[in-house]
Structure formats: structure tokens, C-alpha cells
Design a protein that fits this description.
This protein is an alpha+beta fold. It has three helices and four strands, in the order αββββαα. A four-stranded antiparallel beta sheet has the order 1-2-3-4. Keywords: Membrane, Transmembrane, Transmembrane helix.
Amino acid sequence: MVTPVILLGTAATFFCLGGVFCLYLFKIDESNRQGGTKTTPECGKSAEQEPCCTAAGDADIICNRDGKCGNKTKTDLEEEDFEESSEISEDNSSDKSEDSYNESNGSVTSTELNNHQKKERIEVKEVEKEKSKRDTTTDQGKIDENKKREEEKKRTENEKHERKSSTKQQAKKRTSEEKRRRSEERNEERSKRKSEEKVRKSEKRRKSAENYKENEKRRKSQSREQKKDDEEEKEKTDSKRKSNKKELLI
């Protein structure tokens, strides 16, 4: 039972290691296609022409002038600088020969030609700068528009949430007021019933007291009449007894 578990764990471990290795190879291939992977220092205008990337084993890939990681090494830039300086020296020698020719023929001097070429280059750079500025302004406008749209969406969501919350609070308040009103009505009804019950009991006690007084008065009257009748009956009996006694004596 233990051996299959160990084999399964070993297979899973090798499978994971193979996946990690494939991912590493994929990252290396991706970095080669993109011209390198950034390392310190970060590419940027402050790190122009500084080693920043590694690609295909190189460690001296140079940042471009736009601040992005390029695909040229320090050696490539040095060779380009050397070729450029050679071209400049050739241009200067040709300019000198042209100057001597122009001076002899009375045509345009090399200084004027260089100034004109410099002016053209400056104008081209200004046009490119203006275009880049317009593109940047356009991009910033799009960013601001998107930001404004997001803020409007967020504000709408907040207002919707507030309205929903307000509706819930109002419904809760109405329910609470309705419960309170019903409770007050029940209390008033209960108080009214108690008051009526109290009045009925008071009236019943009053009638009971009146009936008691009336009955007591009637009883006393009957008692007096009965006493009077008894006295009269006794007088009659005594008178009759005396009369019978006299007759016996005679």
C-alpha cells in the first residue's frame, strides 16, 4: 500500500519540476523576442545607454533613448559611434574641398550650407517634437476622458446605492411608524376598555349600595310592622284572657 503512494508522489514531483522548467524556457524565449528582460538599473531617460537587460546570455544590452529596453550592446553603440565619426570626418574633408571650389567659383560657402542643413535638421526635430507632443496631448486627453467616464460611472453607482439605501431607510421608517401607530391605537383601546369597565363597576357598586339601602329600609319597615302586629295580637290575647277569667269568676 505504501509503495504506490510513494511512486505517485515521485511522479507528481517530477511533473511539477518539468512544468517549472518549461515555464522558465518559455520566459527566456519571450525575453529574447522582446529584446531582453529588465534588470537593475531600470530603463529610463536617466539610465540612457546604461546596461539594463539580459538576453541570450548577454548582460550589456543598452536602454534606447525612449527609455525602453533595446537590443544593442555597448560594443554595437561604440562601432556606430566610430562609423559616425568617420562619416563626419569624410564630410568635413569634402566640405573643405567644396569650400575651396566654391571660393574659386564664387558660389555658396560651406558655412552657409552647414547652417542651412543644421536649420533643416532643427526644423525636422521641432516637427517631430510637436507631433510627439500632440500625440502625448491626445493620449492624455483620452486618459482624462476615460478617467472622467470612470468617475461619472462611479458617481452614478454611488447615487444609485444611496437611493436604494434611502428607499430601504424610508421603508424601515414607515414600518416603524406603522408599528408605533398600531401600538398607540391598541393602548388607547385598552385604556378606553379599562375606563368603561371601571365606570360599569362603579355603577354596579352604586346600584348595589342603593338596593342594599332599599332592602334594609324595607326590612326595617317590615320589622316595625311585624312588631306592631305582634303587640296588637298580644293585646288581643291578653284582653281575651282577662275576659275569660272574669267569666269564670262569675
